[in-house]
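Q: What structure does this chain adopt?
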Amino acid sequence: MKRTFLNLNTIASILLAAGLITACSSDDNNVTTEAESETETETEEEATENARWITIAGAKMGDEPGDGNGGTLIYSVTSEDAKDPTVQIDPFNNGFVAPSNRTARLQASEDGNTIFNISYAGDTGGNYTKYSVEGAGVFNQTGTEISIAPYVGTAPRWIKLFDGDNTGCAVRVDVEHIVDENDTPDDITDDTYIRTSQTVGIVTLNLVDSQINKYQQIDLSIGEELESQGYYIGRIDMPTLNAAGDKLYIGARMNKVDPATLSRDEENAADLESDSDYEVLGSKTIVVDYPSLENPTIITSTVGHGDTNGYRSINSFEYDGSVYQANQNDPEGSYILKIGADNQYDDSYAFNLDDALGITGAYVLAWRPAANGKAVLAYRHDGSVEGVAGAQGFFALVDLNAQTAVRIDDIPYNPDFYLFQYQGYAVEGTEIYLTQAPVGQNGNIYVVETETGEVIQGAELINAEGSHFIGAW
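A:
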């Protein structure tokens, strides 16, 4: 029998009825003493207090199945209930609406008791709020709301730094193609184009007191030689704090404009980009001092040749003194790259997902390691079936130390299992919680014990038409 959560009024009615029945009973053997009742209540309260909240997020359909543009709804259960396949979780009917014009960008405290949100786009875009997790669809706003839009716009890329839930960091890059103003549109040549300027904004946010810590604007350059060829950093994301706490690594996506065919019509971005035939450069990361956010440098991998900015989920994590970073759009398939304690890429570490999984075109969608260096990773590849909302996704168990990856076959897959917008995993010890449900179909929570590879099928996820689940926190 499926078990659903009752609302407070229903629970109160049941307890009242039970109390009347007990009061009318004349059988002393069925009467619970006051001391026994208090002990049972204390035990239940202690169990609830000690349990970790697991928050599930669903992205509602806007215009097309899987677009996630209808808003984000969240719902929390205890870790015990998350593992129980008789429990049903229905955020689309019973969840809390996380403020956001499109898919909300969510983060959670390490203990799962707090959810942090920065609204993405629209009238509330850039607004930071945090909520205490109370169970089911109850999330109480705590602290004050603050806007970071004046610093990094209404659609900021942000994540929570792993510094004890104290700091969030958002980044933005603005680009402008610089040309020789003396030339006319009819005179465009290779000499017309000068470079593309890249202005980086970085803001750190005090998550405890809801205030701005620091804002820094940087005029970035990747070097005259590359810029003269039309290369520039077109998107940045996923700032990650190193183990020493004195450097911030910011992932980057390289773009390129063709100097010989540059259109001066800035309204038509498609005419400005010529990205299909250019040489893909080594993966790059921007490094700045922390907490000053000054002295930018750029480091380059000779192993990976893809983007390091990720998309919706955290793309890099500190583990055992180094930072491990996924890349995307690599011609050889995604890599897990390593940045050492010297703040440089460790090119002796060459962890390629194509090789490890025996596939081609691996693309890391979202990943998260536990403290033991073993991770759950969502990916697609060239063999993925095209579903209703995009390419089919899969999960793998990854070992950062052994540089191995194995597909998790105990999780069911479906052509409509879409993970491109996947955002988060909940970690409790060596266990990692994830959500599995095809677009518009029901699914389940799955819990992966990373030490053994054991997989537990947990609570049932109730879906809505065209909607999908984007993770657990």
